[in-house]
Every structure is written in C-alpha cells, then in structure tokens.
Amino acid sequence: MSERERELLQSLMPSLQSVVRMRARLEALESRARMNWAAIESFAAGVIFIDEMGAVTA
Predict the structure, then answer these.
(1) Measuring CA to CA, how many Å separate 27 from each of 12, 13, 14, 31, 45?
(2) How confident is the model at residue 41 (pLDDT cuts 50, 70, 90)?
(3) Which one of 9, 29, 36, 45 has the lowest number of neighbouring Cβ atoms within 10 Å?
(4) This model's pTM is above 0.70
(5) CA angle, 38 as apex, 41 and 29 as ends, to 5°?
(6) With 90 as the cut, is the pLDDT of residue 58 above it?
(7) Mean pLDDT over each residue of the chain, to the nearest integer
(8) Mind giving me the DSSP string for 3-56?
(9) Residue 13 and residue 2: Cα distance in Å, rounded?
C-alpha cells in the first residue's frame, strides 16, 4: 500500500468505524423488533395498537 493510500484510509477510518457501529446498532434493533413481534404473535388474544391520540394504527 502506498503512503497516499495509507493516508486516505487513515482519514476515512473514523467514518468507517462509525458506519460499522451504526450497522451493529441497526442489527440489534431489528433483532429486538423481530423478537417483540414473535412475542405479540404468540398471544392467545388479539392485540390492537393505538397511537397517542387513541386511533387504531396498522
């Protein structure tokens, strides 16, 4: 790797690390959402979601 390439990589490293952290966080949130839906779908009774105004949401 040339010195110029190393400098470029070094300048990009903070952004790349940030992207990796964001991706890991997104994967954790997606996993939690899947687990939450699995729990809701396992209920024997129906579930209705309402927003803060009391309207039924999809």
Answers:
(1) 23, 21, 20, 6, 29
(2) confident
(3) 45
(4) no
(5) 135
(6) no
(7) 93
(8) HHHHHHHHHHHHHHHHHHHHHHHHHHHHHHHHHHHHHHHT-SS----B-TTS-B
(9) 16
Sequence letter at residue 18: S
The tokens of 42 are what?
Answer: 């396992």
SS3 category, 2: coil
Tokens of 31: 């996993």
For residue 33, give both structure tokens: 């959402």
Query: In which residue are the tokens 């939690």 written?
Result: 32
Contact call for residues 22 and 28 (beta carbons, < 8 A)? no
Q: Scanning the structure block, which residue is given the tokens 């040339």?
A: 2
* Distant-in-sequence, close-in-space partners of 6: CB < 8 Å, separation ≥ 6: none
